UniProtKB/TrEMBL annotation:
GO terms for cellular component: cytoplasm. InterPro entries: Epimerase_deHydtase, NAD(P)-bd_dom_sf, NAD(P)-dependent_oxidoreduct. One of its GO terms (molecular function) is aldehyde dehydrogenase (NAD+) activity. It comes from Tumidithrix elongata BACA0141. Pfam families: Epimerase. It comes from the Bacteria. PANTHER family: NAD(P)-BINDING DOMAIN-CONTAINING PROTEIN-RELATED, PROTEIN YEEZ. This is NAD(P)-dependent oxidoreductase. Residues 5-216 form the NAD-dependent epimerase/dehydratase domain. Signal peptide: none annotated.
Amino acid sequence: MAKKVFITGASGCVGHYLVESLLHQTDYELYLLVRNRAKLKTDLSIRSGVTVIEDNMSNIGAYKSLLATMNYVVSTAACWGGTEEVFQTNVHKTHELFDALDPEVCERAIYFSTASILDSHNQLLKEAGEIGTDYIRSKYDCLEYLESSPISKRLITVFPTLVFGGAADKPYSHISAGLKDIVKYVKYIRFVKGEGSFHYIHGSDIAQIITYLLTADQPKFCEHLPTRLVMGMPKSTVNGAIAEVCEFYQKRIGWQIDLSPTLINLIIKLFKIEVAEWDLFNVKLRHLTYDVVTPETFGLTSKYPRITNLFAEVGKS
């Protein structure tokens, strides 16, 4: 009998890559929760065993009986704006979703959080829970609950870093949607530099990892796997990224202005720019780095190992 997988947020950027991967690489029965079926662009007709549930997380309690039969759950759905809506969806209804799972039936429960709530050692960052945006604080609160919930022994939380992705048949991530605008300013970007580092990951590579997590031999697989997986390519520096992009677009780097935290704070004060306390904290932090996993961690091959791969994709679209 085919395994059952319940996926929330299937119509999002990452959701599209994941559904496409599971359709082609497994015979699992897929149950896709989407707010608007029209936004789900994946061709679901390629095989049977797919059920689309047009509803939202606010009504997740209606599927309690169904959820209790699931072998796997992948929760990617999230609300970004409106304090009440954010905490209702990202905390209370997400709790309700995972509480409905049967630990005797569910083999793996995968929860999508965000790397922003962790420090460089993949531990909870207290500032995220204190001064983070509504979205950040909701993710912080939800994780604290889930890691002590009845499903905790089946739980793997994944923390994407900067997410890229999107195509004609997939919605673009927030970052990829702005890449075309960045391309317009490459001729100016080459005149700045700054200390800082970060990780990124593409939606297709996220889908590779999640598909592996749902199909790997469970006893062998679970033995050494951390319950927190930060997904991202190896660390990139700000200056290295600028150099790589400029080389790709054949723009020579010469004299550069150093965008130090001191200069950034001066610009904020001079132009009276309103900046949230959380954003100021991240400007001061600068190095957003973690202990990461990549597709290669699981014996797979990343499709976007370099930053220029991301810009090459924009050039094709």
